[in-house]
Protein: Gfo/Idh/MocA family oxidoreductase
Amino acid sequence: MRKIRWGILGSASIAKRAVIPGIIQSETGEVAAIASRSIESAKEVAEEFEIPVTYGSYEALLADNSIDAVYIPLPNHLHKEWTIKAADAGKHILCEKPLALNANEAQEMVNACNQAGVILAEALMYRYHPRYSMIRDIIQSGEIGDIRSIHGAFTFNNPMNRINGNFRYKKEFGGGSMYDVGVYPITAARMILGQEPQAATVHALFSEEYEDVDIMAAGVLEFDHGVALSFDCSIWAGARNTLDIIGSDGRIEVPSAFLTKQDKTDNIFVITMDGRNEVRREIEVPLVSDYTLQVDVVGRAILNEKNLPYPSSDSLLNMKVVDACLKSAKERRRVEL
Structure:
């Protein structure tokens, strides 16, 4: 099988820590080139991962006709620019979340990729892990009854991000907790329920010290039939990474919901059934890399000209929800979608 030749636009930590290894381990792809605005940085990463070609500019990589697809791990405010430039160069695109800074930007990106006839995928890797197909099967079986509510939490605290002036703390770079980690529980609820929310109510802590970015947010999304997602997210709080799905007859708890660790103790979810005697059982899930699975799903879509399970239209809908959440937090009111 022909392999997709990937080019990496930038030497971000997520690229080095997760996505480049994911491509290397994949069945469908290979890392053919990396570009950075610093050729020294590109060469350093290339040496570490034995990447054959390096470029000192993103434009040079996009001009390489041997590259089939690019991965964009750049700061959030650069996603639109380089996605459109990559599409114009005829490259398929895997872009880090969030896809854009707002739904208008996302629409421009989707339009550019559709016009160029290239695939645009948002890098929300957790959705490709088999635990979520297992969870959806259990829900569809009726085992926990009707879904009553979902709660998701994704918070972390990395002091070095603040010390080093990380983009997450810069408003003009698309910083803030909603963009960085809030998108995870939001996409999870939309994925599990298979529907779009009707309204958002969010309260956030906007930091005067760090350019008024939201360093913590908590909110509620209203779905059909009285079901709600309650969530909180933060880039400066104690670490949590959980998802709870509460049904009429039981509940599912996912203790490591959005970060897949290669550790058997973390790769479980728990079903608890109500009754006179509560019954609890742990379900083990495969020890596999969701980054590799993500690359292979995108790769097979490119090779076989198939639709993605989460197409760019889904990312556009998600940005509309994020827009509503941020508007609610800033205006301190309920926002209908």
User: Anything to note?
Assistant: The domain at 126-291+320-336 is CATH 3.30.360.10 (Dihydrodipicolinate Reductase; domain 2). The first strand starts at residue 4 and ends at 9. Residues 197 and 223 are 5 Å apart (CA to CA).
